[in-house]
Amino acid sequence: MAEVGRVRVCDPGALLPDGFWAAVAVWLERPQVANKRLSGARLEARGSAALPRTEARRPGPSAGPEQERRGPGPGPSEGDPGPGLGPDPGTAGGGREQAQVPLLSGDPGQPVKTGRAEGGVPAAVLAALWGHFSQSLADGNPEMLAFLSRPGACSQPGAPHRLDLVLRTVIPKMSTRCPLRAPRREVVVQDVPNGTVSFLPLEENDDGNLEVTVDNVYQIQLRRSKEEWFISVLIFCPERWHSDGVIYPKPIWLGKELLARLARWSVENRKSEFKSTLSLISILRYSEAYRELKEKYKEMVKVWPEVTDPEKFVYEDVAIAAYLLILWEEERAERGMTAKQSFVDLGCGNGLLVHILCSEGHPGRGIDVRRRKIWDLYGPQTQLQEDAITPGEETLFPGVDWLIGNHSDELTPWIPVIAARSSYDCRFFVLPCCFFDFMGKFCRRQSRKTQYREYLDFIRDVGLSCGFQVEEDCLRIPSTKRVCLIGKSRTYPATGEVWRDEQRTQYIRSRQGCPSSLPEGGPSPSAPQVAADGAGHQDARRAACGAGAPATGLWLPGFHPREKAEPVRNCASLPRDFIDQVVLQVANLLLGGKRLNAGSSQEGILRTWNGGESLSLTEVAKELDRETLQRLKRECGGLQTLLRNSHQVFEVLNGRVHIRDWRRELQRERRPDDKRSRSSEAFKTRICWFFTHHPDGCVLPSDCCPFAHGPGELRPPRASKKNR
């Protein structure tokens, strides 16, 4: 055996050894965080066992028929040193989190067949694997036995030497640039008292049985020496280590990259507020679906007609489509369905997600308030509708299985409501991005959470109030907002629809500060009476809203969808005289209050030229009047955008505003092999602001300035050959 790396860990927060096991859990359950060539890992089974004694001639008793009849139950007591395989004790090692994976019982006397790589119960049972392996250790493999039982920092003399076992499948990332590699299974042996975790690869022998191989066996160890903690990586047999560059990297990577990450994770006193990536679906099937879709739709990047980044939007929608396809595939298997689910994408934007889902056989359509240029490239099989969506009786989809909200902005909180009121069988998928409430911007109410976490909790509350079992997952997309919320089932029977809809109405009104009781205007029929009369779903909803509901059928009259034409808010549409006034006012501040010229200055190069001082944007804003600031706030970027647009006069760097010195600008543009025409021969289409307004005039002479020093130098550009 050989040690390929060791690192000292500083632990000022006294987080070890628990922090070490939390870091090991990340590498065990989410190895793709450290190894980017992996897609993830799937935990097949968990259990506990004991190392065999060297004098033993057979493995200890395994889970037999009696255990199978009892099912998973309490494991052996702390004082039971027997080597039998039992359920995971769960809280060993400082209370680290354990995934809820069932322990599968098996007969260690039977060979372990290789089963399907994905889906359902694995054929290889952890009990049989450990039974065969422990028998080989007892019969004549003292080196491996010594490797697994190395004394560590936390070992206690006389304590039962019990182990935590995990059977996991490591899934490589699938791409066209990397050769396809099959997933590999491993038995992970966690020795909590000794502070070691060992990884034992499994291979298929000639008879098709799984067995532990000594190749690529490695161990991560935590030790303490003289009040200092150390984490090290050891390889059992270095001469038999075979690196494939994906699942098993080179030993130097284990000793440097992996070890550095484990050391950092061990002392990080923070817990992620989000779930693991792709926790609700099969990672292996997702990887296969994503690779196939990416190869099929990669040509969209080349023909992307929108101004947005094609690679980001194409591959993000491909990833979301792959997730939904696997989610729906597993749902069909759970429900015994054969027909593919239908859908409606509310606020579909460029419509690529709709196009992919329709091309993969799911009937559906997309609706957005504005038509995009790329819609014309999809063909007639992709149904995209240009329309504004206002939540009400006219925006229900009773025959649709799923409603999708992919960055649906102001419609995001309404999608669970629309799905709940469309039909009892309608489900929803939302990927929140911008923060909107039922009417207007979302207002924070808790300072202990991040705004993103608080908004996700709000959307979750909406789904719960609508009667959904809401699940959360984290997608694998190139975006900082990648947490989705899914409502697949209801918390109430179909007969309780009327009562539940009353709760929805009250919840929506509570978000607006309105009374939660039903509006006055006449007695509304009770829920039993409506049900007895056989009223339909929409009639029941109207009954819940009462006679005072708006005649238009809107659920909240104050809701306003976004405008069909996206307004230009980059200060370019502001009146010219208003922009000139702000420019003069800011320039006066930077020049120390010196009087600016109202007309032309004298021509010539000045020996001294006042470049002014620099001020922060906050200092500049304090000097502007309230009306000017309010007008600028309605534009994207406000004051900073206006000053950046006035490129001729100002330079904005790191939040500070300067007067632009065009002598430095010409020095930056000048190159040794510059063959461009002189500035005097260029077409000057604008008057020089400094020549007109600066107290010292322009810092450049007329033949060097790219702007006109007076109306006589204005020369409009000629029409290009293309225009002619």
UniProtKB/TrEMBL annotation:
InterPro entries in UniProt: tRNA_uracil_MeTrfase, Znf_CCCH
Protein known as: tRNA (uracil-O(2)-)-methyltransferase
Stated role: Adenosyl-L-methionine (AdoMet)-dependent tRNA (uracil-O(2)-)-methyltransferase.
Keywords: Cytoplasm, Metal-binding, Methyltransferase, S-adenosyl-L-methionine, Transferase, tRNA processing, Zinc, Zinc-finger
GO CC annotations, alphabetized: cytoplasm
Reactions catalysed: uridine(44) in tRNA(Ser) + S-adenosyl-L-methionine = 2'-O-methyluridine(44) in tRNA(Ser) + S-adenosyl-L-homocysteine + H(+)
Single GO BP term: tRNA methylation
PROSITE patterns: ZF_C3H1
Pfam families according to UniProt: AdoMet_MTase
A GO term for molecular function: tRNA(Ser) (uridine(44)-2'-O-)-methyltransferase activity
Subcellular location: Cytoplasm
Family: Belongs to the TRM44 family.
Chain ranges passing through the membrane: none
Domain C3H1-type intervals: 682-712
Residue stretches of biased makeup (Gly residues): 81-96
Enzyme class label: transferase
Organism of provenance: Sciurus vulgaris
Biased composition annotated in UniProt, kind: Low complexity: 513-528
The EC number(s) this enzyme carries: 2.1.1.211
Domain of life: Eukaryota
